[in-house]
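With this grant's support, we have settled on a layout for protein records. One resulting record is reproduced below.
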Amino acid sequence: MRDRIRAILDVRTRHPQAIAEAATARKRRDSLLGDDSRLFIIAADHPARGALRVGERPMALADRAVLLERMSLALGRPGVDGVLGTADVIEDLLLLGALDNKVVIGSMNRGGLAGTVFEIDDRFTGYDAATIARMGFDGGKMLFRIDPEDPATARTMQSCAEAVSDLAGLGLMAMVEPFISHRVEGRIRNDLSPEAVTRSIAVASGLGTTSAYTWLKVQVVDDMERVLAASTLPALLLGGEVSADQDAAFGRWRKALQFPSVHGLVVGRALLFPPDDDVAGAVDTAVGLMRG
């Protein structure tokens, strides 16, 4: 991978137009969903928020060669449909030729940097809808955190609503990841109670001028049947943090995948940096849960 990184550096230095050319030449799949109506996405948009920790490894996502190697391995496994990432990561993968026949979702708002005083003011500093369409990608993802005590929530909510409308106007998926959040000892913490997740889903479902192209990206919590009853929008399960008990995490995913509104998984760190570092094994297990 280090040699391939040097090739990417050469392209970025001498031939930056090759990125747009690679996007144009990319082979695209016919539909968002496969024949089984499932969607399995590998996520890699955390570095752009300055969130580099994975479990007990504080700088795991800081080495781009390691990340791309693991991403390429994951994307090459049978049953993996595509990727979610910021422009830098997706462009690296384009130059590696890893995105043919894959669903590509661009990450849009990354301005709420982890650990900052302005974290809830989650401005759209990544992809916009027009660029996602121009690059031939399939949709855009946005994080929508609602902090009842932070007035910056209103700006983020308005921006998310506008992005949902813009994507829908182009016939592209709007993937919304909602949370009710609070500051605890100066840091943002998401409320994962069923009541809070239900409320966040209800609010997120109403964003924009139409919900026709909106999908929800939701955390697996207790009482998922009641939580998912808050909306008729299709949902994908959020993988979340790396768990020391990976079997327990897989069990929670397996149970939640049985609900009719759930169509798949969006997982990043939990599969790219599993406790035993067996990326292929972790991805294959997750694919088996979803497609089995």
Notes: Residues 2-291 form a domain with the TIM Barrel fold (CATH 3.20.20.70). The CA atoms of residues 67 and 182 lie 30 Å apart. The radius of gyration is 18 Å.
